[in-house]
C-alpha cells in the first residue's frame, strides 16, 4: 500500500473517531462513505474468530494455528492506520464538540444534518437497480423505526458499572452499523455526559468497563452483520439506507428539550449554509472515493489484460 493511501486511512480513522463522539452521527456511516466499511467488517469478524479460537484451542493444547490464521486474514494494512487516526479523532472531538453542542446546538445539528443526508447516497447506490418491493419495504420499516426511536425523550440512568457495560455493548453497534449513533444512544439513556467526562478526565476505571462492553458487543454483533452482508447483501444495504434516513430526525436543527420537532426559527440562514456545507463535503468525499475505486479497477484491468497477438 502506498504511503498516500496509508495517510488517507489515518484521516478516515480520524473522521470515524470524530463521528463516534457526535450524537446522531454514526462512525459506520463515515466508514461507508470513505470506502473502508466492508474491509472493517470482514477484519473485525476475523479478529472475533481469533479470540474465540484462542479461548477454545489454547487451553486444550491445540495451539494457535486457527487463531493465527484468522488474524492473518484481517486487513491490518487498513485497520492499523484507521486505529491510529480514530483515537486522536475521538479525543479531539470529545474536547471540542462538547462546548459547541452546548452553545450552538442548532448550528451544529444543521451541519451534521447535511453530512448524514448526503451519506444516504452511498448505501442506496450500493443496493443496485432495480429495487425490489421487499427492499423498499425494508427501507421504509427501518426508517420509521429509527425515526420513532430517535424521538424518545431522554432518560437518566445512574452510571452503575453493570449498566455502563450493557449500554456500551449496544452503543458499539454504531461503529459497524451506518445510521445507528452510539453517542445518541448514550444521550438517550443519560450516559453521554458521564462518558465524555470520563474521556476528558482520563477516568480509566469507567473507560475499562466501557471498553469491556464494547468488546462484548462487537463479538455478538459483527458476525451477524457479516453473515447478513454475505447472504442478504441488497436487503441489508436497503435497511442501512432506512436507518440513515430515520436518523435524520435527531439532527433536525430546531427541537425542544423533549425532542419535539419545531418549525425553522432563528438563525435559519447560517444554519442552512452549514447544512449545505456538510452536504457538499460528503458529496465531494463520495465522488473522490468512486474516482479512486474506478482508477484502481482500471489499473487492475490493464495489469492483467492479456497481450494481444498481432
UniProtKB/TrEMBL annotation:
TM spans (from-to): 78-97, 109-127, 133-152, 164-192, 204-225, 267-288
Keywords, sorted A to Z: Membrane, Transmembrane, Transmembrane helix
Domain of life: Bacteria
InterPro entries: VCA0040-like
Protein's UniProt name: DUF368 domain-containing protein
Natural source organism: Micromonospora craniellae
Amino acid at each position: 500500500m502506498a504511503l498516500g493511501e496509508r495517510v488517507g486511512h489515518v484521516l478516515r480513522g480520524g473522521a470515524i473517531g470524530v463521528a463516534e463522539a457526535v450524537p446522531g452521527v454514526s462512525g459506520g456511516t463515515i466508514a461507508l462513505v470513505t470506502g473502508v466499511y466492508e474491509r472493517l467488517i470482514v477484519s473485525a469478524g476475523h479478529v472475533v474468530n481469533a479470540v474465540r479460537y484462542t479461548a477454545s484451542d489454547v487451553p486444550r493444547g491445540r495451539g494457535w494455528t486457527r487463531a493465527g490464521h484468522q488474524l492473518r486474514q484481517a486487513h491490518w494494512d487498513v485497520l492499523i492506520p484507521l486505529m491510529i487516526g480514530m483515537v486522536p479523532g475521538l479525543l479531539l472531538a470529545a474536547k471540542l464538540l462538547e462546548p459547541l453542542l452546548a452553545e450552538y446546538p442548532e448550528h451544529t445539528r444543521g451541519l451534521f444534518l447535511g453530512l448524514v443526508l448526503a451519506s444516504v447516497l452511498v448505501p442506496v447506490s450500493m443496493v443496485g437497480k432495480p429495487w425490489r418491493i421487499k427492499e423498499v419495504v425494508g427501507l421504509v420499516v427501518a426508517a420509521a423505526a429509527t425515526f420513532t426511536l430517535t424521538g424518545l425523550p431522554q432518560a437518566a440512568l445512574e452510571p452503575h458499572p453493570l449498566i455502563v457495560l450493557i449500554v456500551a455493548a449496544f452503543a458499539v453497534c454504531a461503529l459497524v452499523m451506518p445510521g445507528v449513533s452510539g453517542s445518541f444512544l448514550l444521550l438517550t439513556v443519560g450516559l453521554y455526559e458521564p462518558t465524555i467526562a470520563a474521556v476528558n478526565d482520563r477516568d480509566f476505571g469507567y473507560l475499562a468497563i466501557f471498553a469491556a462492553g464494547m468488546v462484548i458487543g462487537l463479538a455478538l454483533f459483527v458476525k451477524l452483520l457479516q453473515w447478513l452482508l454475505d447472504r442478504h447483501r441488497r436487503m441489508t444495504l436497503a435497511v442501512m439506507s432506512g436507518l440513515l434516513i430515520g436518523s435524520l430526525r435527531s439532527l433536525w436543527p430546531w427541537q425542544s428539550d423533549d425532542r419535539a420537532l419545531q418549525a425553522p426559527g432563528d438563525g435559519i440562514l447560517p444554519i442552512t449554509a452549514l447544512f449545505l456545507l456538510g452536504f457538499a463535503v460528503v458529496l465531494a468525499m463520495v465522488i473522490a472515493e468512486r474516482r479512486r475505486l474506478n482508477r484502481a479497477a482500471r489499473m487492475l484491468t490493464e495489469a492483467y489484460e492479456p497481450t494481444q497477438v498481432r
